[in-house]
Specification:
By secondary structure, the protein is of the alpha/beta class. The protein is 65% helix and 11% strand. The strands form three sheets. The protein has a six-stranded mixed β-sheet with strand order 6-9-10-3-11-12, with helices on both faces. Strands 2-1-4-5 form a four-stranded antiparallel β-sheet, with helices on one face. Strands 7-8 form a two-stranded antiparallel ribbon. A hairpin with a 5-residue loop joins strand 1 and strand 2.
Length: 591
């Protein structure tokens, strides 16, 4: 009973997904109507051709004599002319449907990609990057098949089946009834195919997503894999997932191979047998002609060939619906960036205050516990603490990467949730521990497609952070190419470019998330000098690993297990001889 209910629910869900997918065609109504018109004309032509052949055979082909006349030539020209028209309209129909299908896929990809930009960080915490990539590439590509070859075949096949049935009944009613009796068997094949294949196809798509995830993860972590001698283990893991994908696909192919073309081809042979028996026993008695028999054979082909194509199309349509469901799951994901009230208020000063803020990622264990602090315009505060103490979580909440419901964060005395997202992020400059550069050139990486930043602004920003000298020495200077993640530049150079990016956008608030953690000691002095200039006149919150980089902060907060346990200036905290003092001694090598 449970399994039956589950199957019904699954079928209902697939129907809902299918209707939603078809709804994306509303934008292309004109092209759809045009494509349907082409398919309808093609179907009518296919129905007329056997009639002409029947007339020609019964009228002009006799056992005794065969005369070639102008009428015969005209009939033959019309016959082959119709085949030519059929080819032309079939081509036009398929091309038009293809335009619709790839237009819909483009819209789906744009919608899904746009949705990704709005999702909260919690979604990316729990979803593998390869899985997201798979949904936007493999799954959307599968959807294209439904609106292209499959959808056009389905509609043209349906047209042809009804026209062929009408033609058969118009020629011989009894024979039409015999052929119609086979229809329930065809529908039974389609029903059991859907029932048996949906699970295997869904599992196949899921395993393909896992393959993409494992591949992306392995490429990103190749240095770690090789340095820890994990090649064999990763290969075994990949082989396991790959084998599972192959097994599920073979299971699907078994169903596909049994219930699609072989089963329907058998029914077609049965239809031929019915025709031969009927003409053999009743032909002479009913006065059935050779032309009529030829027409029946042609209409039988036109009846069963579309059914075979329909069922094969149903196979691919099943894949498309499963893929569409996976794409819609992404589009329907509700873990949006935290909502704003969208009040028209501006950040003018940059004063920041946390009031009793507590936060948990999983809703069970608090990462931050009753955090409160203030920082005024132009001041710098720093957070230090051991790994897992909650330093980065403070930044995550302040940047609104995650939402919170306990406590309050204020900017210029206004709740942070009242600011528009655009206003909030345009006034905050974030510099991360791992400097990230996009594929392109240095200029585009500093500008980040902002129309308000001129070439002069880019150069001035680079000079301000002491990046201009090394950029000028590059081949192409500011037009120098940047590969993926900027891998051809040193960490220090990448960080200086991100500094220039931040300064070019002129934020009022500066967030430094361990910006010097990966910098060598020789480069640190240059980076530190740039940071000092960047901080002047800006409210700055710094997360620091190296205590030497934040000794001039107005206030340093020491975090432990999500709580602020110490606060004060560098000198005050040393005099306290608490946790900060011990951390300082460890880093300076003193006991």
């Amino acid at each position: 009973m449970t399994k039956e209910v589950k199957n019904v629910a699954s079928a209902k869900r697939q129907w809902q997904v299918f209707k939603r997918l078809v709804g994306y065609g509303d934008k292309y109504k004109f092209l759809l109507v045009l494509a349907l018109l082409f398919l309808f004309v093609t179907t009518i032509i296919q129905a007329i051709i056997p009639r002409i052949a029947k007339y020609f055979i019964d009228t002009y082909i006799h056992p005794d004599s065969y005369n070639v006349s102008s009428t015969v030539i005209y009939i033959l020209l019309a016959y082959y002319g119709l085949y030519l028209l059929q080819a032309i309209f079939t081509y036009l129909g398929k091309i038009t449907f293809s335009k619709v299908s790839f237009g819909i896929v483009r819209d789906l990809r744009n919608e899904a990609f746009s949705k990704i930009q709005k999702l909260s960080m919690s979604y990316f915490d729990k979803t593998a990057a390869g899985s997201i990539v798979s949904r936007l590439t493999n799954d959307t590509e599968a959807i294209a098949n439904m609106f292209g070859v499959i959808f056009s075949s389905f509609i043209s096949g349906t047209f042809l089946i009804f026209v062929s049935l009408y033609s058969v009944f118009s020629l011989n009613y009894n024979l039409g009834l015999f052929l119609s009796a086979l229809m329930p068997l065809v529908f039974a094949c389609m029903y059991y195919y859907r029932k048996l294949s949906v699970g295997a196809m869904s599992a196949t798509r899921s395993k393909l997503s896992e393959i993409n995830s494992k591949l992306a993860e392995s490429i990103d972590g190749m240095r770690i894999i090789q340095s820890f001698n994990q090649e064999k283990r990763l290969t075994e893991d990949f082989e396991k997932i790959n084998s599972d994908h192959t097994n599920y696909y073979i299971k699907y192919l078994k169903v596909d191979s049994l219930l699609l073309r072989p089963a329907l081809a058998l029914l077609k042979m049965i239809a031929y047998a019915i025709l031969l028996l009927y003409f053999g026993f009743q032909g002479e008695y009913l006065g059935l002609t050779a032309g009529t028999m030829y027409a029946f054979i042609q209409y039988t082909n036109r009846l069963f060939d579309p059914m075979i194509e329909l069922t094969q199309s149903f196979s691919a349509m099943q894949t498309s619906v499963v893929s569409a469901e996976r794409v819609f799951e992404l589009i329907d994901e509700n873990s949006y960036e935290p909502k704003q009230n969208n009040k028209d208020i501006k950040i003018n000063e940059g004063n920041i205050e946390f009031k009793n803020v507590s936060f948990s990622y999983d809703g069970k264990r608090d990462i931050l516990k009753d955090i409160s602090f203030k920082v005024n315009k132009g001041e710098t505060i720093a957070f230090v603490g051991h790994t897992g103490s909650g330093k980065s979580s403070i930044i995550n909440l302040f940047m609104r990467f995650y939402d919170f419901d306990r406590g309050q964060i204020l900017i210029d005395g206004q709740d942070i949730k009242d600011y528009k997202r655009e206003e909030l992020l345009s006034k905050i400059g974030l510099v991360l521990q791992d400097p990230f550069l996009y594929h392109g050139d240095i200029e585009s990486n500093i500008r980040l497609f902002s129309k308000n930043i001129s070439d002069e602004d880019i150069v001035e920003a680079a000079k301000f952070v002491d990046a201009h000298d090394f950029i000028s020495r590059l081949d192409g200077a500011y037009k120098a190419k940047v590969t993926e993640r900027g891998s051809t530049y040193s960490t220090g150079q990448r960080q200086l470019i991100t500094f220039a990016r931040t300064i070019a956008h002129n934020p009022k608030i500066l967030i430094l998330d361990e910006a010097t953690a990966n910098i060598d000691s020789e480069t640190e002095d240059l980076i530190q000098a740039s940071l000092s200039k960047m901080r002047k006149g800006r409210t700055t919150i710094a997360i620091a690993h190296r205590l030497s980089t934040i000794q001039d902060a107005n206030c340093i907060y020491v975090l432990d297990k999500g709580r602020i346990i110490e606060s004060g200036s560098h000198e005050d905290l040393l005099a306290l001889e608490g946790t900060y003092y011990k951390m300082y001694l460890l880093q300076t090598g003193n006991k």
